[in-house]
Specification:
The protein has 373 residues and is mostly helical. It folds into two domains: 194 residues, Citrate Synthase, domain 1 (Orthogonal Bundle); 97 residues, Cytochrome P450-Terp, domain 2 (Cytochrome p450-Terp, domain 2), CATH 1.10.230.10. Helices cover 58% and strands 3% of the residues. It contains 16 helices and three strands. The chain has a three-stranded antiparallel beta sheet. A hairpin with a 2-residue loop joins strand 2 and strand 3. Helix 7 packs across helix 8 and helix 10 crosses helix 16. The two termini are 36 Å apart. Bound molecules: coenzyme A. The site of coenzyme A (COA) has 17 residues, from helix 15.
Length: 373
């Protein structure tokens, strides 16, 4: 029987029209559009439409999806009833996992699993994620929640609900670009988890919940939070090289570096580095950016590893005054657009995902009665 490398490296687990990567050239496309074209030009709403419909929207289609996304931002009563307990007892990604699972209870489409029903559920999930994260943060800080403003983009509205101040256009646009950059990434761990769940014909909320659970881990979406912790520990640029050397000598990984597929610069990191620099200049607070640059040089010199999407995202979110433990939930607010598109793609041409195994246990043996053990 054919065997695969550990971690399914190189295995084609599913066919997808949603995104593609060239790991050697450092290229990424969503439905054929280069990320270097999408990041500066597209809004996140256009990207959601693209992933859900496989085409860019025209002006009236864009207006429609913006309106649908703006109308569906409020969590349902059941989730709102749970939120104070979740805010008090759960870490942010655990809250999100539970709140999204609970959101299914009162979804207006109920058990409607038609293509149209699942499309509406996908849009609702994309719309509600930022509100769950912002409400959670305000409730845990004993602050009044700030209801969504239907006139704002998804990115600007998130900052509004989180901070209670209207973000300036530059900050809102930077977050919007971050959301575009994180929206989809082929068969990453959380997307694969979502597809495995969907392939059993479980519902789209369950598949999205499985994806959140997978994103939570520090080897996947949780890396951005660890990056900011590292920057805070380093404190100043001159200490970065020594810190990295010690970390690598003790065989610890440096979060935000390395990638299963990219063997050169992750194209998303190029944009995030530029945005981190832009915000460092705008805020006249270059420290985090300079520390990041020193870390990048030290890791390249020692291991030849490039930063991945999580590395400069940490500085960008920090400059946008997003609390560190919300970095991974912000990643989820973007990736939900990809997850739900993959789930719908899986349903459209489904077969149960059930790989084989390599058995490494003992040879078959005889049962030993308890008295003889
Ligand atoms: C992303 C990641 C999980 C990919 O893992 P992978 O494809 O299984 O690669 P491996 O962990 O097998 O790494 C291959 C080699 O590079 C090294 N390496 C990879 N990433 C590293 C990192 N961030 N820091 C230090 N060394 C690293 C490994 O130690 C290994 O070296 P070795 O061959 O001498 O043992 C891995 O690079 C990692 O853990 N990075 C840090 C977490 C992170 O930033 N995750 C977000 C991903 S977008």
């Amino acid at each position: 029987m054919a065997t695969s490398g550990k971690g399914l490296e190189g295995v084609i687990a599913a066919e997808t029209a949603l995104s593609d990567i060239d790991g050697k050239q450092g290229r990424l496309w969503y439905v054929g559009y280069d990320i270097h074209d999408l990041a500066p030009n597209a809004t996140f709403e256009e990207v959601i439409y693209l992933l859900q419909n496989l085409e860019l929207p025209n002006a009236s289609q864009l207006d429609d999806i913006k309106e649908q996304l703006a109308k569906e931002r409020e969590p349902n009563d059941f989730v709102m009833g749970l939120m104070p307990q979740l805010a008090k007892n759960c870490a942010p990604m655990s809250m999100l996992r539970t709140a999204v699972s609970a959101s299914s209870a009162k979804d207006p489409d109920g058990w409607n699993t038609s293509e149209e029903g699942n499309y509406r559920k996908a849009i609702r999930l994309c719309a509600v994620f930022p509100t769950l994260v912002a409400y959670y943060d305000r409730i845990r800080n004993d602050e009044q929640v700030v209801p969504p403003d239907q006139g704002l983009s998804l990115a600007a509205n998130f900052l509004w609900m989180l901070q209670g101040d209207k973000a300036d256009d530059e900050s809102a646009r930077i977050l919007d670009m971050c959301l575009t950059l994180h929206a989809d990434h082929t068969m990453n761990a959380s997307t694969f988890a979502a597809r495995v769940c969907a392939a059993t014909l479980s519902d789209i909320h369950s598949a999205t919940t499985a994806a959140i659970a997978a994103l939570k881990g520090p080897l996947h979406g949780g890396a951005n939070e660890q990056v900011m912790k590292m920057i805070k520990e380093i404190k100043e640029p001159s200490r970065a090289r020594d810190y990295i050397t010690k970390r690598l000598e003790s065989k610890q990984k440096v979060m935000g570096f390395g990638h299963r597929v990219y063997k050169t610069e992750d194209p998303r990191a190029t944009h995030l580095r530029r945005m981190a620099k832009q915000l460092a200049e705008k805020t006249s607070d270059g420290n985090n950016f300079e520390i990041s640059q020193e870390i990048e040089k030290a890791v390249m010199d020692a291991k030849g590893l490039y930063p991945n999407v999580d590395f400069y995202a940490a500085s960008v979110y920090g400059y946008l005054q997003i609390p560190t433990d919300l970095f991974t939930p912000v990643f989820a607010c973007s990736r939900v657009s990809g997850w739900t598109a993959h789930v719908r793609e899986q349903y459209a041409d489904n077969r149960l995902i059930r790989p084989d195994h390599g058995y490494v246990g003992p040879e078959p043996r005889k049962w030993t009665p308890l008295s003889e053990r």
